[in-house]
Amino acid sequence: MAAVLAWIVAVERHQPRAGRPSPLDFPAAISRRALEWAEWLATRAGTRLLLNVNAAPGSPEHQRVQALQAQVLNPADAHRADARALHDAVDEIVRLPAADKDILLVLWIGHGVMSNRQRLLLNEDSRDAGNLRTWDLDSLLHRLRSKGVPMLQLGVIDSCAQYLSQAPGFETLQALGEPAQPSQYFYFAATAAGVVAGDRLATATA
Question: How far apart are CA 181 and CA 93, in angstroms?
Fold first, then answer.
């Protein structure tokens, strides 16, 4: 049986502004959709989980994250989706022994934007439209194709891709050397470039 490593990310909340919720937060089933996958994967033999789902404290989804903490590789960070927690998850993907990760599954759900032909994914450190903190998607995928990462990967990036005229703050991840054997990577974007998820998102990131 193939050993599966699954990394589930849901960026539902962002940094509050002046004691109020971030305007980037909007009512959508971001955490709920991610947790449906995580809970199903947790029941599958031979599957190990990394979880970064920042559901609202006290919500049913937050309680579901807590219920999964004993079953994930990063229990202390399971409820976080800030840059540090995400970096730690990527590092864990690299560190995990090869015998425990024949296949890598990735699901990332949250906000996304486009700037200068770069697709950028917002993380929890973003505060508002003028203070976005993002990861460059291409560099993330290159990092996940580094030496020591599973050679077979399946992933879905479920984020919008609204164009921004000014580039927000973004981080480029560094690859860690080329893989030593032939590999297969299949990543799918849920939206085309320029597409937004709804009016609330368009307003928040305009």
Answer: 17
**Domains of the chain and CATH, by start:** 4-204 (3.40.50)
- pTM here? 0.89
Compute the distance between CA of residue 85 and CA of residue 177 in angstroms, rounded to an integer: 22
CA distance 17 to 13: 12
**Residue 127 is which amino acid?**
R
In this structure, the number of other CB atoms found within 10 A of the CB of residue 35 comes to: 24
Q: Which residues pair with 153 in a beta bridge?
A: 104, 185
| Predicted local distance difference test score (pLDDT) of residue 3 | 95
Q: What is the DSSP letter of 194?
A: T
Which DSSP symbol is given to 175?
A: P
